[in-house]
Amino acid sequence: MSDEADIAAETIELSRLAAIEACRRQPALPPRGTCWFCDEPLPPQQKFCDSDCASDYELEQAAIARAGRARNTDLYAD
Fold first, then answer.
1. Alpha carbons 37 and 60: distance in angstroms, whole number
2. Which residue of 14, 18, 19, 47 is most buried, as measured by CB atoms within 10 A?
3. Model-level pTM?
4. Percent of the chain with pLDDT strictly greater than 70
């Protein structure tokens, strides 16, 4: 028989797995020839200039999500 601690641990684990799966389902950014954060020209298969731009982009997208606005919807814009 399960006690409250077992039920809570199972609930937490299920929530954690659901969050991981939700992250996996988010569309990956395709390379577009420019940096997704600063729009600098890049080689064809690169998405960001450097790790700073990648980090800043993620922070910006997280702030947008916290504000209740849609995340970047122009994933396939030219």
1. 9
2. 47
3. 0.57
4. 86
